[in-house]
Every structure is written in structure tokens, then in C-alpha cells.
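Exercise 7b. C-alpha cells:
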């Protein structure tokens, strides 16, 4: 172990490492202790023969590691930045960066749900998370901030955009790949019933998420109204996680139904038959909200035992009543120059009826591509 003093400003520096009860116990400068089995450590060795330094892919043959593997020696090196070991069975060396061990110990290697601000109409106070289109296009830190706003609130606006499909597609591509679906890639439409979907008519559309019939529902959706010569047509948004949280606190039985019953949905027509199942409120392994999926128009027939079916309908009515309650809704008229990006796994959207000619363009983006961009920007601009 190094005799150098450990800088307290670097909490991930190692202070000590020792074998105890068959496990490697390490203590970090932050004062925290973590335990790793020797087998896990061998599987995650960072020497180039074990972890490809270019691709960061595992090169260890996990299944040839002796089950009783144990270190003969352990050493904290490089002023606490590295843990080294020599394995007892073959005297081979192993090495791990302290940062790696610290991070994986802190998170168990799992990504946690991001910090979110749940909102209703009163909390939002008509002030919407907004950045300038030109900043988001020109600056990676502004793009990072825009994505962070979407993560925090479930939506964000970019103002001052050229009212063109090209500019809208360009900001979509700043975020991720434009997703191809049955509706095409980048879309640009008016009320012409081009597809068998109410989005292509001027009638009001209640709050819903898109792609409940898709196994991987679109993660994000972008709207840009390029032209509207008429009245109405305000877009509405509802924070589905806020409504879910209200039900969690006030009606645990309904919450249990909404978080456990997988509701099938389908899209039929245009030579397509899509089908998928989602809980209305899907939770992650920590019990945190991961995705809401709700479109009552597209729900497919399914049957539960009578008592459960009754309880499901009660829970569904509670959910539908709340997402349609104006207290949980924000509404704004999208005008040319304002691009809306929202999280389709969290934020329900709807639209009031309208008159006149209205032209809207936009795109779907995949959840994983948005998340990838966010991670890359956060680590590059750290
Ligand atoms: Fe929609």
C-alpha cells in the first residue's frame, strides 16, 4: 500500500485492500467500504489481456476462471488510483482502476432513474422549459441542457427556429436518429386522413402516449407547427408520472393494477398489424416509474378473472379521469418557430379541435439514442 497521503478531494482513491471471509474488502478515501468476490474481480480485470483497451469489451474467458480463485497478494498502488492483485493459483497479475471500483460499488453497475420534477398545471405556472433553437444547434452544452430539461420535466421547447422541415429535422438529428415507423420517418402532415389515425383529422384528441402497440414505444416525439390559418389546435401535455404518483399515494390498490396488468394494444390497417403489451405505469427494478403507456383508443381486447377485471376498470377510470383533469394539464398553441420535444414514455399529449389549414411536422426518436446522446454529452462536458 502506498505511504503517500490520500488527497481527500478524490473520494474514489483507495486507502486499503484486504482479504476477509473470502472477499476483497476495499476502503476508499470517501470513507466507504466495498466488498467484491475474487471471481467477480477476475471477470472484470482491466489489464489489456482481459479488457480490450480500444473497445472496452471483455476478453476474459469467464467460464475458465477457477471457482475457488483467490488472490495471493493485494496492493493499493499509484497513490490509491489502482488496485493490483496476484492470483494464488497461477501467479498471474490483475489490476483495477479505483474509479471503476468506486463507481460500480456506488451504483451496483445499474443506472438509476434521473432526478425529475413532477408537475401539474399550477406547478408549471405557464412557464415552460425553453432554450433558443440557435443555441441548441450551435452548442453542445446547450444541447446537453435542453436534453436535461426534457429529462427533468418530460418536455422542453426550442424557440426561434426557422419554420421549415429542414430546420426541424436538423434539431431532431442533433438529439438522435429519426425513427422509421408505419407513418414514415420525418413526418409533415395536415388533416388529410393519410393514415387511419385521429392524428390525421381536425377533431380533439385526448391525452395519450404514442405507440402503445409498439414493443419499443417511441421514446421521444418532436412537433413543429409550420402553419395554421384558423382557430384552436392547442397542444396539451400531462405529466403521466405526476398522475401516477398521485395514484400511488392515494389509491394503492389502483396503483397495483396499473403497474402490474399488461394491457395489450394494436394497430390495424394500412396493411399493418402491430401488437404489444405494456403496463399503464411500468416500474423499474427500484420501483421507480419507467414508462407510462396509455391510449384507450388502441387498447386491444383482453380478459381477466371477473373480480380483477372489475378492479382494472376501476383503476383505469381513475387514471383516465386524472389525466383528463385540467388541473394536471398544460396547454399552449404551437406557433411557427417553436419546436416541442417531449418524452413519450412520461408525458401524455393531446390536441384541441381546430379549424382551418394546419401543417405540422415532426419525428419520433428512440429512447436509447436520446439516452446515448445525453450520456456522451455529460461525460464530454463534465
Ligand atoms: Fe399522438
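Sequence design result:
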Amino acid at each position: 500500500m502506498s505511504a503517500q497521503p490520500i488527497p481527500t478531494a478524490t473520494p474514489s482513491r483507495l486507502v486499503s485492500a484486504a482479504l476477509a471471509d473470502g472477499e476483497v474488502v476495499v476502503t476508499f478515501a470517501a470513507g466507504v467500504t466495498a466488498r467484491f468476490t475474487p471471481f467477480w474481480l477476475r471477470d472484470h480485470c482491466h489489464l489489456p489481456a482481459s479488457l480490450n483497451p480500444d473497445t472496452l469489451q471483455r476478453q476474459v474467458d469467464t467460464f475458465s476462471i477457477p471457482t475457488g480463485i483467490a488472490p495471493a497478494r493485494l496492493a493499493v498502488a499509484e497513490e490509491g488510483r489502482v488496485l493490483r492483485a496476484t492470483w494464488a493459483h497461477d501467479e498471474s497479475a490483475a489490476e483495477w482502476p479505483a474509479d471503476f471500483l468506486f463507481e460500480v460499488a456506488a451504483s451496483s453497475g445499474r443506472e438509476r432513474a434521473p432526478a425529475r420534477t413532477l408537475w401539474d398545471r399550477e406547478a408549471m405556472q405557464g412557464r415552460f422549459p425553453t432554450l433558443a433553437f440557435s443555441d441548441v444547434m450551435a452548442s453542445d452544452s446547450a444541447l446537453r441542457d435542453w436534453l436535461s430539461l426534457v429529462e427533468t420535466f418530460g418536455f422542453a421547447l426550442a424557440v426561434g427556429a426557422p419554420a421549415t422541415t429542414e430546420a426541424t429535422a436538423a434539431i431532431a438529428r442533433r438529439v438522435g436518429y429519426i425513427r422509421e415507423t408505419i407513418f414514415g420517418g420525418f413526418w409533415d402532415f395536415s388533416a388529410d386522413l393519410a393514415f387511419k389515425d385521429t392524428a390525421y383529422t381536425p377533431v380533439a384528441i385526448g391525452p395519450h402516449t404514442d405507440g402503445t402497440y409498439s414493443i419499443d414505444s417511441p421514446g421521444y416525439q418532436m412537433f413543429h407547427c409550420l402553419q395554421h390559418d384558423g382557430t384552436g389546435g392547442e397542444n396539451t401535455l400531462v405529466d403521466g408520472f405526476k398522475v401516477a404518483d398521485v395514484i400511488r399515494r392515494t389509491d394503492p390498490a389502483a396503483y397495483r393494477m396499473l403497474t402490474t396488468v399488461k394491457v395489450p394494444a394494436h394497430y390495424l390497417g394500412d396493411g399493418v398489424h402491430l401488437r404489444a403489451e405494456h403496463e399503464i405505469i411500468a416500474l423499474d427494478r427500484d420501483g421507480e416509474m419507467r414508462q407510462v403507456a396509455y391510449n384507450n383508443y388502441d387498447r386491444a381486447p383482453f380478459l381477466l378473472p371477473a373480480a380483477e377485471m372489475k378492479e382494472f376498470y376501476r383503476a383505469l377510470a381513475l387514471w383516465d379521469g386524472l389525466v383528463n383533469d385540467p388541473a394536471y394539464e398544460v396547454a399552449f398553441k404551437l406557433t411557427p418557430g417553436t419546436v416541442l420535444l417531449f418524452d413519450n414514455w412520461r408525458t401524455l399529449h393531446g390536441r384541441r379541435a381546430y379549424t382551418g389549414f394546419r401543417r405540422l411536422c415532426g419525428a419520433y426518436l428512440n429512447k436509447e439514442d436520446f439516452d446515448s446522446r445525453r450520456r456522451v454529452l455529460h461525460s464530454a462536458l463534465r
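Instructor comment: The mean pLDDT is 94. The two ends are 30 Å apart (CA to CA).
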